[in-house]
Design a protein that fits this description.
By secondary structure, the protein is mainly alpha-helical. It is 68% helix and 6% strand.
Amino acid sequence: MSVATDSNQENRLLRLQAILDSGALKEAGRLLNGLAPAEIAHLLEALPPTERELLWGLVDESQDGEILLLVTDEVRADLIRRMNPEEILNAVGGLELDDLADLVQDLPGAITREVMDSLDVQHRKRLEAVLSYPEDTAGGLMNTDTVTVRAEVTLDVVLRYLRRLGEQMPRDTDLLFVVNRYDDYLGVLRLSELVTRDPEDTVAEAMSLNLQPIPADTDAAEVARRFERLDLISAPVADENGKLLGRITIDDVVDIIREEGEHAFMGQAGLSEEEDMFAPVLVSARRRAVWLGVNLLTAFLASWVIGLFQPTLEKVVALAVLMPIVASMGGIAGSQTLTLAIRGIALGQLTGKNARQLMLKELAVGAINGAAWALVVAIVAGVWFSSLQIATLIGVAIVINLIFAAFSGALLPLLLERVGVDPALAGSVLLTTVTDVVGFLAFLGLATLTLV
């Protein structure tokens, strides 16, 4: 998001809050309903619960469903709790099938049954098909609003068929899917080919066989990577037998990318990307207490290591002054590699096959940076404490810690992913522990051997 856009959002929020404070609800309603659903969702997330409830009551009901899709899970649950069953049914009534599948899973059971009962048989079966797949897979993301054609018909017949569809043509349609009479996927007919080829050509002559369907059980992150690699606007989804099930469009992929970015950013602090900024105090405190507890345990471990060298610290006070430098340098170096590795895993670029090359490269980077900054720190420490021994000690310790930090930063995400732990959540906590412990052991251990 650009700086200008951020500024506009902030100005709207300030203006809206001022209008609400003045009690001019009609003016607030006009301002609010002149915004796009995404902008309204942003404003709702930025308001405390009391003002959020007031604002939600001013939103035009025709926009409720789309706004509910755009807010975070916690804010959505809060808004749904404030709605009566009739309002919820009206909100979901105009949603497309893939959006409805996303939202219906967050509704109360009784409302979900009413929503399902309100659909005709065809739409209910389609919704049940989408809901049969986990929401973070291609099957859970897909929409069944595909336009299919047969290979043996002419392009002129296809054009007349599309004209009859008119406004019923699904949005973001850039491809028509070619199937046989059993709905087996055969290929795609691009609209650009349809309008430029001879109308007497058959679909078989104009279709492309290059676009392979996405298996329904494909992970959402892999779906996003495929869209990025192939520069897709839409893509077919098929079952294990090659039968066309639906399609995924670029708007769904943008949501995946945004959620993954927020997850990686929030995960570094042990938080969920779906957390409400204004969640109840006790709820937020309970969630954060878990990672604070984990961090406390790792801090005790680092303190225990320092305690092992208490006699050394008592004799050479300069070591206590310089210790944080060693740990800090290792922490920064390790986090750089950790971030690179987590990004590689998220993009599918880092696997067990190329992990060794990454580790060797990061070890070399750690060694070079370690040697360069160790020299700088050694000179400063030597002048500060007038001691060549202390200068040498801290220089060697920094080199050791930066090399080990680089190794750990590359290895930890792979190990965590293998055991089923999210590297974005646990990586930074574990890495900090490793770099602190190794840094203290190297610095104080060498000092014990040489100075005491």
